[in-house]
Amino acid sequence: MTENDRFSGRVKRYARVGAVAGGMAARLAGGRFLGIPLDKNEHAAELQAALGGLKGPLMKVAQILATVPDVLPEEYVAELAKLQTNAPSMGWAFVRRRMAGELGPDWQKCFKSFERGAAAAASLGQVHRAEALDGQALACKIQYPDMASAVEADLRQLKLAFSIYRRYDRAIDPSNIHDELSQRLREELDYERERANLELYRCLLKDEKGVHVPETVAELSTRRLLSMTWLSGEPLLNYVDGRIDMRNTVATNMFRAWYVPLYYYGCIHGDPHLGNYTVRADGSINLMDFGCIRVFKPSFVRAVIDLYCALRDDNEDLAVSAYETWGFTELEHHVIEILNQWARFLYAPLLEDRVMPIQEHGGVMYGAGIAAKVHRELREVGGVTPPREFVLMDRSAIGLGSVFTHLKAEINWHRMFHDLIDDFDETKLALRQKEMLGRFAVPLAD
Description:
Helix content: 40-55%
Distance between the termini: 39 Å
Radius of gyration: 22 Å
Structural class: alpha+beta
Mean pLDDT: 82
């Protein structure tokens, strides 16, 4: 039996998506779609066709799109997100074939023990607990069969969904976003690349006592198998009702886990999904899943800081420079002001030198209200094309903001931010990048 034949069984598991998408299309038809009428007879079938064939990889895409405001309407994202909640694991027969294909027919002799049942199952692969011959507890991440084909098929479906949506609403041109998602998803299929990313992050965060990164096991890793040390911890949601000092400790460690690599080395972990980290009893965190790592040019990181300074000092020229460095083009005054509304929302907790929650006013719907207002106004002025770099930066900011909101953390975010940026030097960042990226063979993203 070929791997393609085995994959057919997995495709059947996603057949339910067609029914889900059909229900979504029916709900959208006859109503209003972001203020624009949809014709039931003309468009319901288009929407179902665009989303009805989705398979596993777009579970991960849905997580990212859910945090980039209004790239797709909330109805699309909500239905895609449902796929992630019940990701089925592959059975023991698949595991044996995959492990034999990666480590040889005697692969079980490489381990003292290997658990048959998956400890976790996600969109591109599943994780099994194992024990190395020396007794070390391991996590073995196994890629599902024929995922390269599945990714390409899903990216084509996503492009179709984008194009349908673009006909009705031109506030945001998603073409660059599709390009960015495509490249990052393809990279996630390469576990050798992820192993390099993981080793890079172990080095970048080696002085952060509140952050733990697993060690990889090179001899038990391949392009489709990644073996690493097992890190024990509890889900973050187990801590949301704990003592305020513990919640603040967890939030501080999360902040530094994401932003020390960014401001010191230009690297961002683009997937702050709840399943990608756990919390230890002392409030330190275990950081996992390094498939979605992006490395920015030093000028891009400089622009992140410049936009903060522009908002703080009400300096429109500096804001224009920051946006243009990021890749926005043909920005007029009124477009700058619209973009600044979203930027002020993201940067707000960093601008005030005091202890405060991550979001002080407006409740959980405040951000959605800001996003809707920005979207409406962008549509009125003809829309913008967000640059590729925007996707994971925005993803990380919104994802971490959600974590800090869950924790109800109260911290001086301003001072934590300034601890990282006050000595920022673009030239020194470039030198650190050259040394680190060359050492771990991690390329600068396009």
